[in-house]
Amino acid sequence: MENRVKIAVQKSGRLSKDSLSILKKCGIEFSESSNKLFIKSTNMSIDLLMVRDDDIPKLVSQNIADLGIVGENVVKEKQLSDSSLQLNTLLKLGFSKCRLSFAKPKEMNLVEIQNKKIATSYPAIVKNYLDKKNVTAEIIEIHGSVELTPFVDISDIIVDLVSTGSTLESNNLTELETVMNSQAILIQSKKFPSEKQSLINTIISRVNSVIEAKDSKYIMFNANTENAEELINLLPSAESPTVIPLADKSKVAIHSVCKEDIFWNTIESLKSRGATSVLVLPIEKLSN
Ligand code: ATP
Ligand code: ZN
């Protein structure tokens, strides 16, 4: 029991679904249940701790969880307000992307932030940002309904998380400058029993494979031998491609992993230079 690796995951919210999905893609099997706080994997020595996202950095720092999946925004806020936090940020996971931005009521004529009242759930990040810019302002910490505060005389402006901007829009707010960009990240405790090291490394390496695979594509096409080099140079972030002779001696098949998406214009450029039978496939796992 002691040596089971514990991973802290948000119980319910914007990170939950994708956090569980990435762990499943890593081969960790478990049965989901909306009201469980503790989920035991059925095939690996791993337990999931289902908690509020705000608690994840501390649980990892205190070794109650060995790994955690949480937004960069939450990690930064906790690190700025508690320098004793013991955690390493390992990998950006590519989901729950958002930004922490200033916003003002649409009709407000804002000349400068100096001396304004700013409502936010991220007081440490906002203070750090203002200090760097040498701006003085009053920060009002509030959790929940931050968008409402400029309209009830609690604040002049706000700093809040934005993804599409539709929530700001529906609350009659205009987005101003961005304080930070954020996405879900994998964090690790700095100290853990050495017996756990190997399984923790396996999990980290599998997560890495899953995120690399998500951004990568496998491309195959046929080409005239003399065009092969020119066509290979059109491939985005291609690892040294495989060039295979075909029955027709004047042609080769080219196969390559590309570490980024392949867009239509790349396919069209390949075809306009003689590539045929272009096939682009998603990659499920990529381990280097
Ligand atoms: P909890 O109950 O776990 O404390 P919460 O209400 O603090 O949940 P959520 O709203 O579920 O948190 O957001 C979790 C994380 O999702 C945020 O900290 C942020 O990293 C990310 N996120 C992505 N897009 C948005 C968005 N538009 N608004 C808020 N958070 C977002
Ligand atoms: Zn939270």
Automatic annotation (TrEMBL):
It is an enzyme of class 2 (transferase). Its main location: cytoplasm. Its cofactor is Mg(2+). Residues 213-285 form the Histidine biosynthesis HisG C-terminal domain. Keywords: Amino-acid biosynthesis, ATP-binding, Cytoplasm, Glycosyltransferase, Histidine biosynthesis, Magnesium, Metal-binding, Nucleotide-binding, Transferase. SUPFAM superfamilies: GlnB-like (SSF54913), Periplasmic binding protein-like II (SSF53850). The keyword Manganese does not apply. GO terms for cellular component: cytoplasm. Pathway: Amino-acid biosynthesis; L-histidine biosynthesis; L-histidine from 5-phospho-alpha-D-ribose 1-diphosphate: step 1/9. InterPro entries: ATP-PRT_HisG_long, ATP_PRibTrfase_cat, ATP_PRibTrfase_CS, ATP_PRibTrfase_HisG, HisG_C, N-reg_PII-like_a/b, N-reg_PII/ATP_PRibTrfase_C. Residues 52-208 form the ATP phosphoribosyltransferase catalytic domain. It is found in: Cytoplasm. It catalyses: 1-(5-phospho-beta-D-ribosyl)-ATP + diphosphate = 5-phospho-alpha-D-ribose 1-diphosphate + ATP. One of its GO terms (molecular function) is magnesium ion binding. Feedback inhibited by histidine. Its EC number is 2.4.2.17. Belongs to the ATP phosphoribosyltransferase family. Long subfamily. This is ATP phosphoribosyltransferase. It comes from SAR86 cluster bacterium. The gene is hisG.
